Amino acid sequence: MDTPRAILHLDMDAFYASVEQRDDPALRGRPLIVGGHPKRGVVLAASYQVRPSGVHSAMPMARALRLAPDAVVVPPRFGAYAEASEQVFAIFERYTPLVEPLSLDEAFLDVTDSLSLFGLPGAIAARIRAEVAKEVQLPCSAGIAAVKFVAKVASDVAKPNGQREVPARETRAFLAPLPVGRLWGVGPKLEATLFALGLRTVGDVAAADVGLLVEQLGDTGHHLAALARGEDDRAVVPDRQAKSIGAEDTFAEDTASPDVLLRALHSHALRVARRLRRASLKARTVQLKVKLSDFTLLTRRKTLEHPTDDGQRLYREAADLLARLTLTQSVRLTGVSAQEVVGVHSQLGLFVEKEERTGRLNAALDAIAERYGQGAVTPADVASLEADTEEDEVRRRAGAARYDVVRRES
Questions:
Q1: Which residues are catalytic?
Q2: What architecture is the 1-172 domain classified under in CATH?
């Protein structure tokens, strides 16, 4: 008989909000929302103190503020979150190389081959959480199981700042009483369908006739039946390589002005290029993102002949993609992303001398920006965007017009 795997799901609790409360003692214990524009933005994180009001991540800010009018609202500081994430993942990787990140604050770990070094799975999870608390000063929850799906559910059940272990033999008993909405892939529409079939708990789905599920739901029936029985043979796949780097902003008011749209794209492209250079990466593909006033999302991509980390090149390609669109409505949001990223030494361009000149120029501009701020040297057409005060830069990145607390982005 095969020995069950030991899978951990580690999830930072209210990550962005916890970082803000860690770094600002005045925010500790207070209902806190990390989010964007009060009318057009969304909640990026909600502290546990504000959640009893019904506020949760991805909720429109306008609704969140109606539910919790006394909440403190702060802008996101993505640099601070990225730094904390790196510290947390460095701790994860002390225990296994098999770390599969799902986001900045969440990962699966396969510690099956680490048991002889560090002890039982629950003990490993406890050690990791203790080290995160001591070294990064942030709370972390853990789920421990033989499969990824169950580990994820277990960490959800353990929140906040706890851990739950589900031995392989207890998997079905653990899942059975949970609502069907806990199954991956079950949204409101599918949940209603399952309710109509008399299936309200995971145990109901596990006990249901698979043929009936497939007849009613197609291939999804097989998927749900397997998950309900705790069957999930997916491996933990380590992958820390960035797949894309992007920048986007929601306009304060919808616009159809070509000049405004191009200035925004130029700003996005310059920000993306700076991030590429900081990470020693180049992009093979540029993607344009445009969200219309009715929330229709348009994306267009172009693969480049040679990878680049040059903001002007990214801008020209994004502007060309925009010119090819027929816009029938005003625009709510624009974005530019660098995709299919590769290391800077992965491929030499044919025009090496020109690339070296561009590289030297960008390095000089980066050095100036590092010392004097992003607005020190900037193209004239985006000066009003790029040369804003630091406070406005932070607000613009979040699509925000006003915050109760404004701090330096780290």
A1: 106
A2: 2-Layer Sandwich (3.30)
- Give the list of residues 6+ apart from residue 242 with CB closer than 8 angstroms, or none: 279, 281, 341
Report the topology of domain 244-398. Answer: Dna Ligase; domain 1 (3.30.1490)
Rg (CA), the chain: 24
Question: Residue 54 is encoded by which pair of tokens?
Answer: 């019904």
Cis omega (within 30 of 0) on the bond before 160? Answer: yes
Digit-coded pLDDT (tens) for 210-248:
888 888 888 888 889 899 999 888 899 886 555 678 888
Sequence ranges of the domains in the chain: 1-172, 176-228, 244-398
Does the CA dihedral 287-282-263-389 come out positive or negative? positive
Q: Confirm if 191 and 171 have CB atoms less than 8 A apart.
A: no
Q: Phi and psi (nearest 5°) for 293?
A: -65, -25
- The whole-angstrom separation of Cα 68 and Cα 51 is 9
Helix, coil or strand: residue 61: helix
How many whole angstroms separate alpha carbon 180 and alpha carbon 205? 8
Q: Which two tokens stand for residue 55?
A: 């506020």
Q: What token pair was written down for 185? A: 């892939």
Class of domain 176-228 as given by CATH: mainly alpha
Q: What is the largest CA-CA distance in the chain?
A: 69
Structure tokens at 66: 């109606």
Quick count: other Cβ atoms within 10 Å of Cβ 259? 9
84: nearest Cα among 127, 159, 22: 22
d(CA 319, CA 282) in angstroms, rounded, equals 19
State the Cα torsion 371-376-378-383 to the nearest 10°. Answer: 140
Reading the block at residue 99, the tokens are 């770390």
What are the tens digits of pLDDT across the range 155-206? 999 999 999 999 999 999 999 999 998 888 888 888 898 998 899 999 999 9
Helical (H) or strand (E) element with 309: none
Residues in the chain: 410
Gap between the Cα atoms of 326 and 160, Å rounded? 48
pTM higher than 0.85:
no
